[in-house]
Amino acid sequence: MADRNTTIRASQLRNFSVTAEDLENNSITGNKFIDLTISGSKISNSTVTDGKLASSYVYADGTRSLTGTWSYGSFDISGSGDIFTTGNMGVGTATANARLEVEDGGTTKSVVLKVTADDDSLWALQVGNDTANTVDNRGLGFYISNANFGVIGHNGVDSIVINTSGNVKLRGSSNFVNEFSTDGTLVDNSDLAIPTEQAVKTYVDAQVSPDTIEIDPTPPSSGTARGMTATMTVDVNATGFGAALYMASDGNFEEANATSSGTVPCTALSAESGTGSKMVLLVGFARNDAWNWTAGEMIYVGTSNGSLTQIQPSSSGEFVQLVGYATHADRIYFNPNLAMNELA
Fold first, then answer.
1. CB burial of residue 25 (10 Å; 0-12, 13-18, 19+)
2. Which of 126, 193, 310, 338 has the greatest number of beta carbons closer than 10 A?
């Protein structure tokens, strides 16, 4: 409480006196104040007590403190302590409507709020409910790492990752998606694009038109089938993939055999090995690299359990049933004809 000529007037003091015990270093000079003076109007309750000041500390709530330097003109504060308020804080606005509200204040700056840190993968922003759960990593968080542009997480786990190329990866995926594709042909067959609803509809409409059903005639590998399939119970199948099957009286499939009326007609082809709940081919194409068919020749139910043959059964009491034809040495088109001829 010194004036410009560094004198102290008793009228400027709360109790009209100042003693060395009241001062941090037993002295007070004019250069300690912004405008070289201090008055009661500059103090919230017109008094200064040692409880309000303590060497280089400014007490905001009686318990928290900020160390270092601070000034009045541009309100610069630097220190290592906490700043505490029970009200709202506004930056660029005098009427903050939230605990912290930041506005550009009419400036042309492109960045309004910036958070940086030296640590990699710092959770720069977290939104949660500390009443419902007090665990720090609960809620929605955002951080930037050295490897990725941005990460949005939930419960401390990365949910959405944006890499430095701007591509997006969702939780549980190993690939970054780089586009939403409108390509209705899906020709790229890519794991890096998500087709739009219209693209999917266009593709499906092209594959399944009201007038035609297209079946891929070239199954991709041995032991695969394409066409009309069903998951049914298979009780007997020692042949494996491609076994000729008939439906027994209990409604389950067993291996067909042209030597008996009780084991024909063949109505399905096994599309899986083994027994139990299995996929069977009702109509369509099947591939088995162990086959050695003559393309274009008819295929019949064989005279051993589950077998197919291009040689018609010829013995008395055997049944001739056409079930399809060969399209390649290792591929057949299966479409069983239920009309059979029993040989006399």
1. exposed
2. 193
- Give the C-alpha separation, 330 to 271, whole Å: 15
Domain boundaries of the chain, sorted by first residue: 122-170, 224-342
Length of the chain in residues, anyone?
344
Rounded distance between C-alpha atoms, residue 132 and residue 309, angstroms: 71
Contact criterion met (CB below 8 Å) for 308 and 302: yes
Maximal CA-CA distance, the chain = 138
Phi first, then psi: give them for residue 199, nearest 5 degrees.
Answer: -65, -40
Q: Is the pTM of this model over 0.70?
A: no
CB 324 within 8 Å of CB 333:
yes
Report strand pairing: 322-328 vs 298-301.
antiparallel
Q: Is the pLDDT assigned to residue 261 strictly greater than 70?
A: yes
Q: Say whether pLDDT at 32 is over 50.
A: no
Q: How many CB atoms are located within 10 Å of the residue 265 CB?
A: 19
Asked whether residue 202 carries a pLDDT value surpassing 70, the answer given is: yes
- Measured CA to CA in angstroms, residue 292 lies from 225, 301, 321, 330, 337 at distances of 17, 16, 20, 6, 22
Cα separation, 264 vs 266, whole angstroms: 5
Rounded to whole angstroms, the Cα distance separating 316 from 344 reads: 5
